[in-house]
Design goal:
The chain is an alpha+beta fold. It folds into three domains: 9-39 and 322-568 and 774-918, no CATH class; 64-311, no CATH class; 585-758, no CATH class. 53% of the residues lie in helices and 14% in strands. It has 33 helices and 21 strands. α2 packs antiparallel against α14 and α13 packs antiparallel against α14 (408-432). The protein is flat.
């Protein structure tokens, strides 16, 4: 007899509930995509920031330069052979072989050759320009790769005629177009430079070359070769003279030995920007140390055959980049841990929802002899069939979306999502059905008692939260932080969730008694239902934990982003002193102030005069002083928040202030107050003593930074007697030299046109843009904002899952209550009132927890690295500030979403057919 065919478990379950399977697949694909994208996005902006920072640095700082004196103490013939291109090329290859990974060299921008280290005067060539009667000076270089990095604009490339030696006195050379234009050089010109012993070495110019990429390391490492510059002597007054570069053929290098330029061999190794990444910075720094002062230096000296010196600023740059990255990383990890925690809770809740929906099925299986192991194994296979392909799809999409970065962290993150998903349902079912159950008692949170295990777990998390907060406040994120520090906001939310779950039954008990005495049934039913809406310890904590974590992360993240904007705004205001600044080294035209007031967007103008020549009586230092129009400057200081002060603090009614009898009141910085004290003191201006007295002290002021004194310009002018016509020369010294302008959307082009080309114009918006030019800052800010938004989305999904869990029970309850006379309006009120306590609890708890987390962690959180592109370790620390909108808006959204879902469920339930059948003929 053929046994009956038994349908496979997995196939049967997928066919029975395809909607649930597709929903789980979508959740897993989305979560695995986000989990895999995050590490690649972080690596992408970190590497982009590194490449941007290296490219923005001056090549002399990043190029690895090897130099050695040109063969002193050797025979002339051997010395000449060592300078030739073949010998230099062999040494270059040996040097490259001695470098240790990950130090990689961009061979296209690297070069080698022989160059002079002392400027050579062309004192016999009178046809060269002489600005102050001084002859032009030149540096000579026989550098490899000249033909690859230049284009012939006139003439031809220089050549080495015959076999050039140190005795050769005539060679061919070339100059760049910038040098030719400035020094009036053309093909056929001959420049004479001093020889080593006597006479001159003649350089015949055969060509004028155009640098293909003047900013590339080949040219920028030695700027004098690409373009000439005016230098000044140390005399009084200083005199100007030209300094330019002459380019020789590589095979003509031995001729430099015959000049008085003290030549040296050099190898310029440009770093390969394409191979740089943030994770190899420690290894790169070690490789640089290996070459600069370790065993690699010995290998370099063997290859070059001399006492070679190695110099680079790349190691200092790496140190600065690592410090900046260490200041940014922990701040971003706070959002990552918060969002990751919420995502994990959503996955666990999805498994819990499936287990709760199929509780009766599992109970029947256990009562008929099914084992816990067999049940868990079947559920694991059932979930894995859906989760593994979905996780693979999410991973593939992540790899395509962000093509930069390592694939291993992305695979591990996606695998973690799949693993959590696969284990959530089997473990939840195994824990709930480890014993055979016939029927379950009704769960009621208001009468539930926490177990000992839960108490131990809560105490453990409380200890971890306290430890993380203490660590963050003591060490801060500037020292790099760790996972415990980054988890601090999450742990605060976890502790708050456990506390709220324990406290939650108390108000229910208090409100249930008076509600039972009311005539209406809706209020009492809603309170009674609320006590069972989050039944069971695990299911009660998970939704609230997810909401609190998400709200805490959103509040924390919103405050971080708000703090970044605030710090950038403040830095821009400190740089300009207002929304716009017009500044000149001399007096501005008298009509300019009126013209600026008429420009669109200008609200107020504060003219002032800056003086840097005021000296105390001892003459040891010069004091920066701003002479301002008191009324407009007081409004400016109040509007910008830079040392607001009452206008009367600087005004005086004395006819001739600034004397011993009537000292001139000044606004001073704390440093100036410490120097001069609070009593009268004298400053010498324009050969005259002016007596001043500190009337107010402020840490900042719009006109000046750091040390400053601010006085009333009108009173200072009265002291100098400029109100008299005989003193018009003195009066010109007190005309405004700067204008500080406030307003919204100031028309920058119109302002620059009104000011003229000889006047400096700076806009606050332009200054602010300077702080966000680094991909490291902008990328981190975008990732942080995305993490906050994603966390909020998962929080909303958590709320929907929590409400969906009780949806069948609510539907059945409403159907029964409708048969007992409950109207549709009462049904909607019942569901809304049932959902509100949990939503209000989560919203209030989330806002309070977010505020507490910000207050607790702000002293240890440094936002300077995220806020300012040029932030260093020695500047002021930008700390976290509470942002009311970030606290209240997410909490309000939670309440609105819960209310909308409950109302929607009531509306949909009212349209169900069985309700119409039970209440036939009702129209209300």
């Amino acid at each position: 007899m053929t046994p009956p065919t038994v349908a496979p478990w997995v196939r049967t379950r997928l066919r029975t509930a395809p909607g649930a399977a597709w929903a789980l697949a979508l959740l897993v694909a989305l979560t695995s995509f986000l989990a895999a994208v995050f590490p690649r996005a972080v690596e992408d902006y970190e590497d982009a920031g590194l490449r941007h920072a290296v490219s923005a640095e001056a090549p002399p700082r990043t190029v690895l330069t090897l130099t050695v004196q040109a063969g002193s103490g050797q025979e002339p013939g051997a010395r000449d052979e060592m300078m030739r291109s073949e010998s230099m090329r062999t040494a270059y290859k040996d040097v490259l072989d001695s470098l240790r990974a990950p130090l990689a060299v961009d061979r296209a921008q690297s070069s080698y050759g022989l160059r002079t280290t002392t400027l050579l005067k062309a004192d016999t060539d009178m046809w060269l320009p002489r600005p102050d009667g001084l002859p032009a000076e030149f540096t000579l270089s026989a550098q490899s790769g000249l033909a690859r990095h230049s284009t012939v604009a006139a003439g031809r490339l220089p050549r080495a005629a015959g076999k050039v030696t140190s005795e050769t006195t005539e060679v061919e050379g070339a100059v760049t177009t910038a040098t030719a234009k400035a020094l009036h050089i053309k093909p056929g010109s001959v420049i004479h430079v001093p020889a080593l012993m006597k006479g001159y070495v003649s350089v015949r110019i055969t060509g004028v070359l155009e640098a293909r990429d003047p900013k590339a390391s080949y040219w920028a490492a030695a700027p004098a070769l690409a373009a000439p510059s005016l230098h000044q002597t140390n005399g009084k007054p200083p005199s100007d003279f030209w300094v330019g570069g002459l380019l020789l053929a590589p095979d003509a290098a031995p001729a430099l030995l015959g000049t008085a330029g003290d030549p040296e061999r050099f190898w310029q190794l440009a770093p390969d920007l394409g191979s740089l990444d943030a994770r190899t910075m420690p290894a790169l720094k070690s490789a640089l140390a290996y070459t600069e002062g370790g065993p690699g230096l010995l290998a370099v000296r063997v290859a070059t055959g001399g006492d070679t010196e190695v110099a680079t600023g790349l190691d200092e740059f790496i140190t600065g980049y690592q410090e900046l990255r260490s200041r940014i990383g922990p701040v971003v990890s706070v959002a990552a841990y918060g969002t990751g925690t919420v995502a994990c809770i959503v996955l666990l809740m999805a498994g819990g929802l499936a287990a709760e929906r199929r509780r009766a099925e599992f109970t029947v299986l256990r009562s008929r002899g099914g084992s816990v192991r067999g049940l868990a194994g079947r559920l694991l296979a059932e979930t894995a069939v859906v989760a593994v392909p979905a996780g693979a799809v999410g991973l593939a999409l992540a790899l395509v979306a962000v093509r930069h970065g390592r694939w291993q962290p992305a695979v591990l993150a996606a695998a973690g999502v799949v693993l959590i998903t696969c284990l959530a349902l089997p473990l939840r079912a195994a824990a709930a059905h480890r014993r055979v159950q016939v029927g379950g008692a009704r769960d009621d949170l208001a009468h539930a008692r926490p177990s000992r295990r839960r108490t131990v777990a809560e105490l453990t998390l409380l200890v971890l939260a306290v430890a993380s907060i203490v660590a963050l406040r003591r060490r801060g994120t500037a020292d790099g932080g760790d996972s415990l520090v980054a988890l601090a906001p999450v742990l605060v939310g976890v502790v708050a969730a456990f506390v709220l779950v324990r406290v939650y039954p108390l108000p229910l008990r208090w409100l249930a008694r008076p509600a039972g005495r009311l005539r209406g049934v809706v209020g009492y039913l809603s309170l009674a239902r609320t006590g069972r809406a989050t039944a069971g310890a695990g299911t009660a904590v998970l939704p609230l934990l997810a909401l609190l974590t998400a709200l805490t992360t959103a509040a924390f993240g919103g405050s971080v982003l708000s703090g970044i904007d605030h710090e950038r705004d403040r830095a821009a205001v400190l740089a300009t002193g207002a929304d716009a600044r017009v500044e000149s080294g001399s007096a501005l035209p008298t009509a300019l102030t009126g013209q600026v007031r008429k420009i669109p967007g200008v609200r107020d103008v504060s003219p002032l005069m800056l003086r840097y020549d005021a000296e105390p009586e001892d003459g040891r230092r010069q004091v920066p002083l701003a002479a301002v129009d008191t009324a407009s400057y007081a409004r400016l200081a109040a509007r910008t928040g830079l040392g607001a002060f009452p206008a009367k603090a600087l005004t005086t009614d004395a006819a001739r202030p600034g004397t011993a009898a009537s000292p001139l009141p000044v606004l001073a910085s704390p440093s100036m107050r410490d120097v001069f004290g609070t009593g009268p003191f004298s400053l010498v201006m324009d050969g005259e003593d002016i007596v001043l007295r500190v009337s107010a002290v402020r840490t900042a002021t719009p006109a000046l930074s750091d040390d400053f004194l601010v006085v009333d310009r009108a009173a200072l002018a009265r002291r100098a007697g400029v109100d008299r016509k005989a003193n018009q020369g003195i009066a010109a010294r007190y005309l405004p030299s700067s204008l500080l302008i406030t307003g919204d959307h100031i028309d920058g082009p119109a302002l620059r046109k009104a000011a003229g080309s000889e006047v400096s114009v700076r806009l606050r918006a332009t200054e602010r843009a300077r702080y966000v030019d680094s991909p490291l800052q902008t990328g981190a800010a975008r990732v942080y904002a995305a993490a906050v938004v994603i966390g909020a989305g998962y929080a909303a999904l958590t709320l929907l899952l929590a409400l969906a869990r009780a949806a069948p029970e609510r539907t059945a309850l409403l159907a029964r209550l409708r048969t007992m006379g409950l109207t549709r309006r009462q049904a909607r009120r019942l569901l809304v009132l049932e959902a509100l306590p949990q939503a209000v609890l989560a919203a209030a708890g989330g806002a309070l927890t977010g505020w507490a987390a910000i207050r607790l962690l702000a002293p240890g959180l440094d936002l300077t690295g995220l806020a300012l592109a040029s932030a260093g370790g020695g500047g002021p620390v930008a700390q976290l500030r509470t942002d009311a909108l970030s606290l209240l808006l997410p909490a309000l959204c939670v309440v609105l979403l819960a209310t909308a879902v409950a109302a929607g469920q009531a509306w949909w339930t009212g349209r169900r057919g069985f309700v119409r059948e039970l209440r036939a003929g009702e129209t209300s």
